[in-house]
Write a structure and sequence with these properties.
The protein is mostly helical. The chain has 19 helices and six strands. Helix content is about 60%, strand content about 5%. Helix 11 packs antiparallel against helix 12. It binds arginine.
Length: about 450
């Protein structure tokens, strides 16, 4: 034969070596070997059930596939670039192993539905893995929050001191973000849960196959309902990388804060030595490299998202080889987010909170200025007027190097007659936090029921 490829019948010349190299995806899609074999096993069982292959052939194919699986997992297989991808490599291994029967496996199937199936199965598995890692992180955040319900710290807007909060309150904001990420992963899983197997090249098949049977065998909710869409859809890849981008964005924001917090200027938290690094020239340095790298890797995942969106944007229906470019972007995003989640969780878990520094930092910066204004509102003045009075008091304090709570009652009264002795209680930092009792606010009283909701959430999801 002039061309000995599985598809070589209509070819007169051999494939150029460079074409093989350029065209092949085995280098990276070999990681889909398990999904490919599971898909083939289900396909074989269906072909037998429908009388398309004999029980003897079916057994022979299934045994062969299982043997190949063991061989791959024990490192006894060398993949061949000239067999292009994982699908044709496994098919070739199978025919080499069992002969004629192996050639029947590809009846009523195409690599187009095969690759869509393998990738979907892989995506579904990894969406669950990522969700598990997020839940571990959520648990770590929750435990730290429980230890820090009383840890008063400055809350910021524009990175300028704003109002006093607690460390628990602050990190539970991330709990909320990761909760949304989990729900996004669940949504993506749900939409990825339709089985493309049996769509074949694009137009289904004339064989009497049972797509519901293979879909069920492979753990899908149902088969895809349009064979063209089944082989040309990569929304599930885009959605997965998009979900991962959200997670990376949230991790990156958290990392940014950690980097700021462990700077000498802030000194809010201390990273454990095992999750920090030194400098090759400056002996005194302890750097938050891990947090910086996670922040950096966020850019790389966004790049992958832009990459796959751009690959897909101009493709006519149905399958086009461009779509082979989805895999490295997908795999890299999955590897990256898993690695980042694992190390971030450990880094955060082992970090320690400098409670006294946090508390001290709330003592300057007039974090209770809003409470001065609110105090006068409660005495009957409109907020816009009280905002002005509090602002003038802040200006007076800056001029005289004082804090609001250090002013004498006389000094308060110069700005408004309505100030009484109870102003000191109203603006003590402790009360500024603890009087914020509305749902979702920082006081311990408000946080406790939220913590209970979070505990229940983790228990249910695990
Ligand atoms: N390696 C290909 C991919 O990743 C598999 C599908 C190839 N199909 C085809 N008709 N060439 O997309």
């Amino acid at each position: 034969m002039a061309n000995d490829k599985l598809w070589g019948g209509r070819f007169c010349a051999k494939t150029d070596e460079m074409t093989d190299d350029f065209n092949s995806s085995i280098r990276f899609d070999k990681r889909l070997y398990l999904e490919d074999i599971e898909g083939s096993l289900a396909h074989t069982r269906m072909l037998e059930k429908q009388g398309i292959i004999s029980p003897v052939e079916s057994k022979c194919i299934q045994d062969g596939l299982k043997k190949i699986l063991t061989d791959i997992e024990t490192g006894n297989v060398t993949f061949d670039v000239s067999c292009e991808d994982i699908h044709m490599n496994i098919e070739k291994l199978l025919t080499d192993l069992i002969g004629e029967a192996g050639k029947k496996l590809h009846s009523a199937r195409s690599r187009n539905d095969q690759v869509a199936l393998d990738t979907k199965m892989y995506v579904k598995k990894e969406l669950l893995n990522i969700k598990k890692l997020l839940l571990v992180l959520e648990e770590v955040i929750l435990n730290k929050a429980k230890e820090n319900l009383d840890t008063v710290m400055s809350g910021f807007t524009h990175l300028q001191k704003a109002q006093p909060i607690t460390f628990a309150h602050h990190i539970c904001a991330y709990f909320e973000m990761f909760k949304r990420d989990i729900s996004r992963l669940e949504d993506a899983y749900d939409r990825a849960d339709t089985c493309p197997l049996g769509a074949c090249a694009l137009a289904g098949t004339t064989y009497n196959i049972d797509r519901y049977y293979t879909s069920e065998l492979l753990g899908f909710k149902m088969p895809t309902l349009n064979t063209i869409d089944a082989v040309s859809d990569r929304d599930f890849v885009i959605e997965t990388i998009s979900c991962i981008s959200f997670i990376m964005m949230h991790l990156s924001r958290f990392c940014e804060e950690i980097i700021i917090w462990c700077s000498q200027e802030y000194n809010y938290i201390k990273l454990d030595d095992s999750y920090s690094t030194g400098s090759s020239i400056m002996p005194q340095k302890k750097n938050p490299d891990i947090a910086e790298l996670v922040r950096g890797k966020c850019g790389r995942v966004y790049g992958n998202l832009m990459g796959i969106l751009t690959v897909m944007k101009g493709l006519p229906l149905a399958y086009n080889k461009d779509m082979q470019e989805d895999k490295e972007l997908l795999f890299d995003s999955i590897d990256t987010v898993k690695m980042c989640l694992e190390i971030f969780t450990k880094m955060f878990q082992t970090s320690s909170v400098n409670k006294s520094v946090m508390l001290k930092s709330t003592k300057n910066g007039f974090l209770n200025a809003t409470d001065v204004a609110d105090y006068l509102v409660k005495k009957g003045l409109p907020f816009r007027d009280t905002h002005k009075i509090a602002g003038e008091l802040v200006f007076y304090c800056i001029q005289n190097s004082k804090n609001l709570e250090d002013l004498e009652l006389d000094e308060f009264k110069k700005y408004c007659e309505l100030f009484e002795n109870d102003i000191y209680d109203a603006i003590s930092l402790e009360n500024c936090v603890q009087n914020r009792k509305t749902t979702g606010a920082p006081s311990k009283e408000a946080m406790k029921p939220i913590i209970e909701i979070y505990e229940k959430y983790i228990k249910e999801k695990k």
